[in-house]
Each structure stands twice: as C-alpha cells, then as structure tokens.
Amino acid sequence: MEDDLDKTKKTVVVESRKREVSDVTAEAKDVKAEPYRTKVSPCALQTQADIETYYRNAETGSIAVVRQTQHHMLGYSVTEIDGTNPKKGRTYIKQFGAFYMKSGKNCFHPKGQRTLVVPTPEVLAWADKHPRGEFGYQTFTQEQYQALFRPK
User: Fold this and answer.
1) How many CB atoms lie within 10 A of CB 147?
2) Higher confidence at residue 69 or residue 33?
3) CA–CA separation, 61 vs 113, rounded Å?
4) How do strand 134-135 and strand 73-85 relate by DSSP bridges?
5) How far is 32 from 30, CA to CA, in rounded Å?
6) What is the per-residue pLDDT for 58?
7) How far apart are the C-alpha atoms of 69 and 130, rounded to whole Å?
8) What pLDDT, on the 0 to 100 scale, is given for residue 6?
9) Residue 123: how many CB atoms within 10 A of its CB?
10) Among residues 75, 68, 67, which one has the least CA distance to residue 131?
11) Does residue 36 sit in helix, strand or coil?
12) Do 90 and 102 meet the contact criterion of CB atoms below 8 Å apart?
C-alpha cells in the first residue's frame, strides 16, 4: 500500500514539474527575442575638428564634458572649464586637469581613457539619464571601425 502511495506522489510531482516546464516553454515562445544590437554612444560621430572648434572658442565657466571609457563602461562627467591657455593649446577642466584643445586628449595621459567631447544636447541627455555610466556602448560606429582596416 505504501509503495503505491509513494508511486502516486512521485507521479504527481513529475506531472506538476512537466506542467511547469511546459508553461515556461510556452511563455518563452510568446516572448520574441530581440536581436543583439550594438549601442553607439551619443558622441560617436563627433570629429576631432568638432572638439577643437568647441574648446578653442569656449570661455572659462563654459560647460565641458569628459568621456570616461574604463572597463567596457561608458560614462560622461559634466563639469566646467577652469581656464584656457591658447598658446600651449590646452584647456583646464575642473576636477580633471589639463586637456589638449586640438584632440581632446588628457595632457598627462594622452593614451588614457578620459577625453573631452562636445556637450551636445544628446550627450547631456545621456549623461543625465545614466549618471553612473552604462555598459555595452561603443564610442565609434561600425563604419569607423572598419575604416581602420581598409588598405590606404
């Protein structure tokens, strides 16, 4: 009698698990999988000329945006210009130090992950929406990346 009861309990448990699995499978079929899309940062289309034009003409106290791309994470810090030195081609950014006006690169770490970008409305909106940064964004477009490997 006990064996029959145990078999009945096991059958009920197995049947309930089958139902759970089939329910999950049915739900998964209803959800359409979104294909992976690479997210491009709002500053990806800014050129070196755009950056140079903005920071050469910017005055002390103007808005400055520092792009930080460390550990596959994109972040923008919105700050202000502390001062400029057009003779040396440098702009001084509050809390971040000196940057080259021409390229937007940090003067002391030119191959580092902090660079200046033009504070466009898209960049400022993105920085406001993601105050701590976000993973999975590229700072260049696919065409820009492919151009690196084309024969000249």
Assistant:
1) 11
2) 69
3) 24
4) antiparallel
5) 6
6) 92
7) 14
8) 56
9) 20
10) 75
11) coil
12) no
Distance CA(78)–CA(102), nearest Å, equals 19
Q: Domain extents for the chain?
A: 1-33, 40-147
Per-residue tokens: 26: 């049915």
Write the pLDDT tens digit of every residue in 63-99.
Answer: 999 999 888 889 999 999 999 999 999 999 999 999 9
Tokens of 96: 């971040």
Is the model's pTM score more than 0.85?
no
Instruction: Give me the pLDDT at residue 24, please.
Output: 44
Close Cβ partners of 40 (under 8 Å, ≥ 6 residues apart): 137, 138, 140, 141
Residue-level pLDDT at 117:
95
DSSP, residue by residue, 107-125: SS-TTSSEEEE---HHHHH
**% of the chain with per-residue pLDDT over 90:** 47
Q: Which of 99, 68, 103, 105 is nearest to 82 (CA)?
A: 99
Q: Which residue has the tokens 């460390």?
A: 70
Instruction: Calculate the CA 19 to chain-centre distance.
Output: 41
Q: Of 144, 148, 139, which Cα lies nearest the Cα of 65?
A: 139
The token pair at 1 is 């009698």
